[in-house]
Amino acid sequence: MKYARVIGTGSYLPDKILTNHDLERIVDTSDEWIRTRTGIAQRHIAADSEMASDLALNASREAIKAGGIDPREIELVIVATTTPDMIFPSTACILQDKLGIGDCAAFDVQAVCSGFIYALATADMFIRTGKCRTALVVGAEVYSRILDWSDRNTCVLFGDGAGAVLLRGDEQPGILSTHLHADGSQSKILSAPANICGGKVQGKPFVVMEGNTVFKFAVKVLEEVVHEALAENNLESSDIDWLIPHQANIRIIASTAKKLGISMDKVVATVDKHGNTSAASIPLAIDIAVRDGRIKSGQHVLLEGVGGGFTWGAALIRW
Ligand SMILES: CC(C)(COP(=O)(O)OP(=O)(O)OC[C@H]1O[C@@H](n2cnc3c(N)ncnc32)[C@H](O)[C@@H]1OP(=O)(O)O)[C@@H](O)C(=O)NCCC(=O)NCCS
Q1: How far is the CA of 36 from the centre of ligand 1 (A)?
Q2: From CA 274, how far away is CA 164, in angstroms rounded?
Q3: Which of 149, 202, 237, 268 is deepest in the core (most CB within 10 A)?
Q4: CATH fold of 176-318, please?
Q5: Atom 19, ligand 1: which residue's CA is nearest?
Q6: Is the pTM of this model over 0.90?
Q7: Quick check: 29 pLDDT over 90?
Q8: What fold characterizes domain 3-171?
Q9: Residue 102 pLDDT > 90, yes or no?
Q10: What is the C-alpha separation between 146 and 190, in angstroms, rounded?
Q11: Is 145 helix (H, G, I), strand (E, B) or coil?
């Protein structure tokens, strides 16, 4: 099997919507500030009873249904998440059980907002090397659990959700290439700096961020990695039908698109309605653009993401 093809997609958003106006009652902020700085108007928030695996389960069921397969055909489950159900077992193992898949490899990938690209690249390698034929790749986050709801610098930016893609080995492309990068020296500019020791939380288990530094770093590395993906496939940016970026901030998205000469009508943007759902944002955007008919068979779709670590990456797909 030369390539991994996407045969099904799915997504899930919790029922509860938190608007910018709702946030005005929680912290000293305004709808106008949030919209103009980030493009975000609202985000979804998981119910207390909902864990990352529950969001992942709903998204996965949709992807499996769209792919028209029996879940027991899945040989690999990878969940990208920064907000797992528990320390262990992995959210992927919990998801595998909830789906009733039975024995297959299952593990989590932790690359924060680049997590879905990392997970997709990993599954692509499994399929290309013949190690498995059918893989479920999920991004699922309950970021609302690791936000300090008194910190306006961060709590207005994130939301909860999940997205899933089902991959199957095929002679036809498929994922054309994936590109992964990390620079651990930048770990402090975006982190949730806490751990568990002796049953107690050590440190601050909430997202902290140097917003401006993150912004500049993101714009720089996304442009680089997108050029890397295009060059490897001898393609120009004009060959790209859809750019699906990680949905952190509409200004980062627009800046990357502009540098590439890609007009915004070729960019799938969901940040206004979802906020930044970290590892879930790209598969959520993919599912929405597949289901509303924008993404069509044979088109070139370019995914790119950046996040804590720092990590960043891209994937170029012929749909
Ligand atoms: C966070 C971010 C939106 C801030 O936008 P910005 O244009 O850099 O904001 P500025 O630095 O010009 O303004 C900051 C001011 O707004 C204030 N501010 C911060 N959050 C605010 C909020 N929610 N509402 C109102 N004011 C806010 C700050 O306190 C600061 O005020 P001060 O100048 O009096 O100290 C922007 O830096 C960003 O998007 N960074 C990247 C974040 C990201 O995408 N992270 C995830 C990557 S995966």
Answers
A1: 10
A2: 16
A3: 268
A4: Peroxisomal Thiolase; Chain A, domain 1 (3.40.47)
A5: 153
A6: yes
A7: yes
A8: Peroxisomal Thiolase; Chain A, domain 1 (3.40.47)
A9: no
A10: 13
A11: helix
